[in-house]
Amino acid sequence: MREPVIAGNWKMYKTIGQAVQFAEKLKAAAIPGGCRVVICPPFTALPAVSGVLRGTPIGLGAQNMHHREEGAFTGEVSPLMLKDAGCRYVILGHSERRQYFGETDRDVNLKVAAALDHQITPIVCVGELLEEREAGRTGEVVARQVLGCLNGLNAGQAERLIIAYEPVWAIGTGRTASAGDAQQVNRLIRDLLAENFGREVAQQVPILYGGSVKPGNAGELTAQPDIDGALVGGASLDPDSFIAIIRSAVSCKQ
Ligand code: PGA
Questions:
Q1: 164, 177 in Cβ contact below 8 A?
Q2: For the chain, which terminal residue's Cβ has fewer other Cβ atoms within 10 angstroms, N or C?
Q3: C-beta of 236 in contact with ligand 1 (< 6 A)
Q4: For residue 83, which phi and psi values (nearest 5 degrees)?
Q5: What distance in Å separates the CA atoms of residue 142 and residue 137, rounded to the nearest whole number?
Q6: Ligand 1 pocket member 210 (CB < 6 A)
């Protein structure tokens, strides 16, 4: 039985003070058991939020990472630094990284391997553009991304992943994939994992949906058999809406 995972991607929002306030509110909330909750603040807030979350089951993640441990890479942050700041998760290959910073599946692949080497759980994002969906190419695009990002991993590594299907046209737009369409793509991802890493691994890896998830639609999406939770952007910035999404995802899986 896969535990639902609800991860909040704060993107480039919140000062350190605002992030700490959010973490304190989340820590004080009655979060139901039987789920994994992760928040991914901007780099600057990671150490302070880690301090607030210490001793709680709430996980801390970063939104990006360089694949090398250290070096002359101005402006980059390494896996060692993320561990040092208290992170157990990292979002990799988010469509905004791909779109605005030119990240390729090859880049994501290097980062995924590096995160696993450092015992950081990667949340690997894949998803098609609107024109790709309209051209009927969703399956092909998502399969290429999954295989590219996971290239060279063995089954023992693959079983430690989290994957998030995020159709690019649904991110920050208020347009959500229908629960049925999202289920279909998540199922395709699980089948690919089974083909490449075996059925057991495929059954174990949480595959999330992301793209305009809100308290009002989280239940229907996460009720699907292959949608194991949500990667939430905008609606994760407000603690009440984030907590409502967690509750509705958990109650749908029970
Ligand atoms: P959104 O973002 O929930 O604001 O659509 C999702 C994401 O970018 O992970």
A1: no
A2: N
A3: no
A4: -60, -45
A5: 9
A6: yes
